[in-house]
Design brief:
The complex is a heterodimer. By secondary structure, chain A is mainly β. Chain A contains no helices and eleven strands. Chain B is built from no helices and eleven strands. The relative contact order of chain B is 0.34. Classes of the chains: A mainly beta, B mainly beta.
Chain lengths: ~120, ~110
């Protein structure tokens, strides 16, 4: 079982509030990711990081921001939540194995966010 | 048009059936192909990983990749109720800027009933 944790698991919050979704992994992985997943839809990459002080935007435009000050920690922040931010947010980390060919992404359990 | 297309189902089969799950894709740069399983209220977990074309077997699961047709499949033999989950295909290119950036299908919901 993957050692990657997300808190909170569920969050209901009003419009305009600032929120931070926490993600931590204890596997020492350099690469970490945030995905957004809506019901019946594919996962969309919104942010990723190749290591400490490295962050990049993903393929799906997002109003959220991320930081990577420590290897194990990759929080996601929404400065002003809106109903359109309602979704499930999944954090993942990855390592290379099998002679650098196989990359395994390990996912956390997700945070279900509802913005009223 | 989406880069990866996956029939969302839902798919309902009796216990012991052979299940076939499929994805098609349009980006010929994809080299690595994965199947993830996601149980309700959990994150996805890697089930199978295949590089380029060919077959890979792991217990009751077989992954097939046909790059000429841009088509990948996952077969589940002797399906069990515990296989009930959403199955997501994912893929990426080889190295460079595509390293680590997976493109997912929308997932197929599978229910195996006793």
């Amino acid at each position: 079982e993957a050692d990657i944790y997300q808190t909170p698991r569920y969050l209901v919050i009003g419009t305009g509030k600032k929120i931070t979704l926490e993600c931590s992994q204890t596997m020492g992985h350099d690469k970490m990711y945030w995905y957004q997943q809506d019901p019946g839809m594919e996962l969309h990459l919104i942010h990723y990081s190749y290591g400490v002080n490295s962050t990049e935007k993903g393929d799906l435009s997002s109003e959220s921001t991320v930081s990577r000050i420590r290897t194990e920690h990759f929080p996601l922040t929404l400065e002003s939540a809106r109903p359109s931010h309602t979704s499930q947010y999944l954090c993942a980390s990855s390592e290379l194995a099998g002679g650098m060919l196989q990359e395994t992404q390990y996912f956390g359990p997700g945070t279900r966010l509802l913005v009223l | 048009q989406k880069e990866v297309e996956q029939d969302p189902g839902p798919l309902s089969v009796p216990e012991g059936a052979i299940v076939s799950l499929n994805c098609t894709y349009s980006n010929s740069a994809f080299q690595y192909f994965m199947w993830y399983r996601q149980y309700s209220r959990k994150g996805p977990e890697l089930l199978m990983y295949t590089y380029s074309s060919g077959n890979k077997e792991d217990g009751r699961f077989t992954a097939q990749v046909d790059k000429s047709s841009k088509y990948i499949s996952l077969f589940i033999r002797d399906s069990q109720p515990s296989d009930s989950a959403t199955y997501l295909c994912a893929m990426r290119g080889a190295g460079g800027t595509s390293y680590g950036k997976l493109t997912f299908g929308q997932g197929t919901i599978l229910t195996v009933h006793p």
